[in-house]
From TrEMBL:
Gene3D superfamilies: Aldolase class I (3.20.20.70). The active site is at H97 (electrophile), E169 (proton acceptor). GO terms for biological process: gluconeogenesis; glyceraldehyde-3-phosphate biosynthetic process; glycerol catabolic process; glycolytic process. InterPro entries: Aldolase_TIM, TIM_sf, TrioseP_Isoase_bac/euk, Triosephosphate_isomerase, Triosephosphate_isomerase_AS. This is Triosephosphate isomerase. It comes from Ancylomarina salipaludis. Belongs to the triosephosphate isomerase family. Involved in the gluconeogenesis. Catalyzes stereospecifically the conversion of dihydroxyacetone phosphate (DHAP) to D-glyceraldehyde-3-phosphate (G3P). It catalyses: D-glyceraldehyde 3-phosphate = dihydroxyacetone phosphate. Keywords: Cytoplasm, Gluconeogenesis, Glycolysis, Isomerase. Homodimer. GO terms for molecular function: triose-phosphate isomerase activity. Its EC number is 5.3.1.1. The lineage of its organism: Bacteria, Pseudomonadati, Bacteroidota, Bacteroidia, Marinilabiliales.
Length: 252
């Protein structure tokens, strides 16, 4: 059975002290609320990871990085490897977010290397996919998303694929305040699941958690999460305010 997941993506926000304070606040709220079987993930900047893993006591919360290097180790000044991330106690890594694809030139080729390194280090990739506005407007959105999945993930065995979380984030809904409608989200999530079933079989497709990301907030989370193929969210701005994040976690 696939998991319900709400993952926060803090992006480049919060200094260390602010991050610890926010994580403790979320931890307290998660511990004192019946969040059913929802798994919470906090995607924090690298410098927060060690301290967040110490500060979080709830077994319902996992810590995630937002990127990792595409090489194992060596002379790559400024890079942070998957094994370094794992050594902090962190369990997940967000990969291929549209901001990394567009601002830092992350290609599918690079993402294959990063995905492999995460899996080798027992880190769960939260693999992001999604089309830009022109691609949706010209009717290419299904093809774009299918290629991103095929090029970035279809080299994996069915067993390794089973360790991956997918996040569909239409780029036109990121940081714009515009959200995909519940119908648009369901339509794409169902298409993604069908694409996975063609490659890995129906069981693997049914077991994969597919999150929706892009201006997801307490006011629209319930409607988005009520869709059969939407298993939760990857949350940007609303994950920076504990009450808002909790409003989304409790929206199932
Ligand atoms: C957003 O909701 O803005 C995101 O990019 C989540 O990753």
């Amino acid at each position: 059975m696939r998991k319900k997941i709400v993952a926060g993506n803090w992006k480049m926000n919060n200094n260390l002290q602010e991050g610890i304070e926010l994580a403790k606040e979320i931890n307290g709220l998660v511990e004192s609320t019946d969040i059913k079987d929802v798994q919470v993930i906090i995607g924090a900047p690298f410098v927060h990871l060690t301290e967040l893993n110490k500060a979080i006591t709830s077994n319902k919360i996992r810590v995630s990085a937002q990127n990792c290097a595409d090489e194992k180790s060596g002379a790559y000044t400024g890079e942070i490897s998957a094994s370094m991330i794992a050594s902090t106690g962190t369990e997940c890594v967000i990969l291929g977010h549209s901001e990394r694809r567009s601002y830092y030139g992350e290609t599918s080729e690079i993402l294959v290397k990063k995905t492999n390194l995460c899996l080798e280090n027992n880190l769960t990739p939260i693999f992001c996919i999604g089309e830009v506005l022109e691609e949706r407007e010209s009717g290419k959105h299904f093809d774009v998303v299918k290629s991103q999945i095929a090029d970035g993930l279809f080299h994996l065995s069915v067993e390794d694929f089973g360790k991956v979380i997918l996040a569909y984030e239409p780029v036109w809904a990121i940081g714009t305040g515009v959200t995909a409608s519940a119908d648009q989200a369901q339509e794409m999530h169902a298409f993604i699941r069908k694409t996975l079933a063609e490659q890995y079989g129906e069981e693997a497709a049914q077991n994969c958690s597919i999150l929706y990301g892009g201006s997801c907030k307490p006011s629209n989370a319930k409607e988005l999460f009520s869709n059969e193929d939407v298993d939760g969210g990857l949350i940007g701005g609303a994950s920076l305010v504990a009450e808002d994040f909790m409003g989304i976690i409790t929206a199932f």
